[in-house]
Amino acid sequence: MRPIAFIFLVLAHFAAFTQPCSVEMLLKVPGNWKGPGLGSVHNVTPENLAKEKAVVGEIQKMISSAYQPYGVNASYSYVFGYGLSGGKNWTADPYEYVIRFPDFTCNPNDNDISKKWINPEPRASIWVTVNEIFRGGFQLYAADLPEDHHTPFGQIDAWPEKRDGYWFRKIRDSGFERSGNRHYQYLITYENKLPFKAFTRKQYLEYKIPIMEKYLADYIKNSAEVDPNFDAASKRVFESNQENIKEVRQRIKDVKDMLAKMSKEELDMGAIINNGPNDEFSGFKKEGEPYAKVLVIPDLSYYKRLPKWVPQFFCIDVGFDTQTEAYRRAVPAVEKTLDFSWFKKMLGSTSIIAAAKTGAELSKQTTPSAPQSQLAIQITAGTKHNATPAYDIYRNKTTKGFKQTPISQLRNAAVKPVVNAQQKAAAMAVNITTTNRQAYLKKILSDIESRLSPEQKNTGKLVLDSAQGNMVMLANTGVFLYLKGLLNEGLWCLAYAAAAEPGNDNIVNNLTGIMINAGAVPRALPLARYLASKYPKNTTVMNNLGQAWYALDEMMKSKQVLDTVMLYAVYHPEANATRGAIAEREGKQEEAANFISKSLKGAYNPDVEEFAKKKGLKIDYSNVLYRKRPFPGEYINPLDFRPPPQCTNVDQAAALEAEWEAWNVQVKKASGKIGANLNASSANYTKMSTDLARNHNAPAVPFGSFFKKAALTYKVFLDEYTALSEEAVNYHQTNYKKEEASIDSAHEKAIVKLLEKYPVGEGQRTNWNSYCLALNAVNNHYLEQKAALNDNFNNRFSEPLRRLSIELMYWSQFLPEPMEMREMKYYGHAGFAVNPLQMHAIFEYPCEKPPKPNKSRDSLDIPEPYCPIAFKFKFTVVKLTGDCSKFEIEVNLAKALLIGIERDFLNRKTTLAFGAGADVEIEAFGQKGDNVGFVEDAIPQLIEFSGAGAGGKVQAFIEIDSKGEVSDIGIRSEASLEGAWTEKGDIKIGGKMGVNSGVQITGSDAVQPVVQYLNGNISN
User: Fold this and answer.
1) Which range is least confidently modeled, 776-790, 812-826, 883-897?
2) What would the pLDDT profile of 7-39 be if each residue is shown by its tens digit?
3) Phi and psi, residue 604, nearest 5°
4) Nearest 5°: phi and psi at 177?
5) Burial, 157: exposed, middle or buried (Cβ in 10 Å; 0-12, 13-18, 19+)?
6) Closest CA relative to residue 892, chosen from 882, 884, 900
7) By the 8 A CB rule, do 553 and 414 touch?
């Protein structure tokens, strides 16, 4: 029997080892798409429901066209309008797309792969929710919280992390968040804003105090029912109750004291509270502490006034069990199909954009559109993939034609630190602990005080008195004083605050960083090492330590620490700059150049730029310059002048047209004020320039610390604005016009067919209701198409041009130029920011109501933009003329010899001209006795700054088109009588004879009848 048993065991083992139903085999089995399952539908109008189905349908097409499930099925479903019952002020509909992944497992009763079965409880899902967040222990909709909500706030684990084009939120308290599992969310929102805001400490304390007082009153009332004289047990209960009452009263007093004594800045901070097993309030917590919850409330100011179906933010919720290999493969594969640029385009769009990439298109991509899943990021060791918005004005883009410096041409530029060996050894021997840190900080304070002058000590006393014992305020004042250049006073404030509150690591870290920057590295090193041991993942703390090690010439230690910093902050400016110096000292020039470029991507720094120049490294500022503004505020906020939505339905026409009319009035008022300010600043600039020309003494222009970055950034944005403006005009004249003509033609044909079906005449069109319904449907379709066309133009060109103008407004204020010039530039850009090229809505009214006679499809073109810029200046031998469509410069090289360059922005042409000319001056400022003179008489005295005069010229010209090719060549002439300051109102008549253009005569508005007569005779 034994041989038979042995053979049986061997065969059983062999069968178990080679059986076909294995995980690897199951992962090769193609799955199926199941759906759509239609979930609940609540409080959604039929019109909105149809649009919402179209949106989630596009999401499904985006995924299914690029993803084939293996080892799992892909089951998807939709839910519409589900939300918190009783929510107030609903602004947008919530709706959802969800995909779950039932995985394949082996049939326990059969090893045949064809007899696999499906896990009925899959632990993997991806939710794409529109205008709502409801997973991960947090519910948020486009509405205020209902009256019966258990608290006036919601709770999240931590504030979302801002990334390139989206927000990332890791969810800790979740059913998915078990050993090895993952749960996280991507939030895709308008301009990196959030649809919720912090619930402040002040709001929380004011909410908590009445609750605690009611609890106390109820407790006292219930305690009064206990008779302490009844028996011994009752006496113990009574005494315990009295102790509890005393304790609760003290808690209430503490909370009231917090509300009374906290500064306004502290009270305005977001509230973070304990939400652990015992959630009695005992003070505010820090983000990241155990059981800490950040309190938030909906922010309805985030939303735009749009139809309720329109997506205003997306939440992509990803949760899966990483222990299951099928989910480890399926979820990242689906994430790669999510095109974040599509989601960006859909935000605020009133048209359904069918822009999801097909599987074939995705296979051609070198990187996925959406960020990889967190699991995939770990597997690929830090590979970064970011979604790019349709037009990101902050994007890094290599300048056309830019060539990087060859590595062989780079030279060494890093300076080796000078180190005092004795001080270094002493610093490295000190070990800071919680026991000795206060003594160490007090010694630093004492040393700083010994170096203060009497005036500085007096300043410190005044600052300390104003802080009124608030050490955080004192420390912040110290940072401010340091930034203003008052180093000793700033260090004293920080050292005093740190010595008073040695447990406040933020204060100690600021003191450490400023000591390192000030050169007191040996004294700062022990503090930097102490903080780094507590916060090994904090990039600010670790960077301070890395900089300290470098300053002490400990290259390997510095390199190790700074590399850790860059694991968490790839473009950390200081860490990259110092790593560049270390790489250079190691003889790695290419690596050093890469670190310098990354540093400038993180933040522009003139010292880093100087380092790059000394190395001989060419810098492409369009590619590496970090262009975001450190301060977001605006004196004029053009975002307040965004237009209303396009009309997409005849029933909206009356209300929306009223909104558009109000918007037009608002824009005209703002444009008028901006124009007045522009005129005033132009007059100031004129006076300043005239004084300069007479006195020949240029006043000193005050340069702020920001001026160098401003000059570089301003040029980058100006180049982008010019290029996008030209593209917009060209697009409008070609693609837009063609599409517009097609839509109008189709609409006219539809109307003709409708009239054939419902003819007009005696006794005809008896079914008026049917005719109206049909006409409204035709017009609605037409309005939707025109709205989509206009929205596409506005989103592609108008809004980016507005945002670029806003950036130009901002950076122009810091340019190294006279104040008068900065003001003139600021208001010039403000005019275009308030009213950029904008596609106006059109309106069709319901057939039951008579349409307004002055509306409809008569204004389909770009409305004439408000153009505050029209200038003409003369500086001795140079004349500058320009407006919104052109810029011209003319130079007198010698007697009666003129050279001219003209740039036509609208037609994208450049004209070069040279020849003879004479200019007659009309005196505006001087008393020369003879108010008229010719160029031959005295060129330096001829041209006054006002630009008034009379003259003529005959020139040869060469015309160059947008491709850089010669488009025409010939001769032109001009006679003119010019007014002062601006070319508007000038009387000009010019003739042109070109090889390609033939004979043309042009003139200003005042002589148009003459021009038409002459051109008519020539053509005849």
Assistant:
1) 883-897
2) 222 333 333 333 457 787 888 888 889 888 766
3) -70, 135
4) -80, 70
5) buried
6) 900
7) no
Domains of the chain by residue range: 9-194+312-379, 201-300, 429-533, 638-696+759-834, 870-1019
Element (H, E) at 887: strand 886-894
Q: Which residues of 91-127 are buried (b: 16+ CB within 10 A; e: fewer)?
A: bbbbbbbbbbbbbbbbeeeeeebeebeebeebbbbbb
Q: Specify the residue for token string 């020309």.
A: 693
User: What tens digit of pLDDT does each residue of 909-918 get?
Assistant: 777 776 766 5
Output 40 or 204, whichever has higher pLDDT. 204
Nearest to 394 by CA among 629, 710, 728, 566: 629
- Dihedral angle of Cα 803, 806, 812, 814, to the nearest 10 degrees: -100
Residue 463: is it exposed, middle or buried by C-beta count within 10 angstroms (0-12/13-18/19+)? Answer: buried
Residue showing tokens 């479903």 = 77
> Helix 737-757 crosses helix 768-793 at what angle (to 10 degrees)?
180
SS3 assignment, position 1008:
helix
Mean pLDDT of the chain: 77
Task: Please write the tens of the pLDDT for every residue from 437-485.
Answer: 899 999 999 999 998 898 888 888 888 888 888 888 888 888 878 876 7
Distance CA 835, CA 863 (A): 10
Strand 886-894, strand 897-904: pairing: antiparallel
Instruction: Look up residue 438 and give its DSSP letter.
Output: H
Is 436 within 8 Å of 662 (Cβ atoms)? no
- The DSSP code for 698 is P
**What is the C-alpha to C-alpha distance for residues 311 and 52, in angstroms, rounded to an integer?**
9
Asked if CATH classification 1.25.40 holds for the domain at 429-533, the reply, yes or no, is yes
How many other C-beta atoms are found inside a 10 Å radius of the C-beta of residue 859? 12
The secondary structure element, H or E, covering residue 100 is: strand 95-100
Q: What are 114's two structure tokens?
A: 């064809």
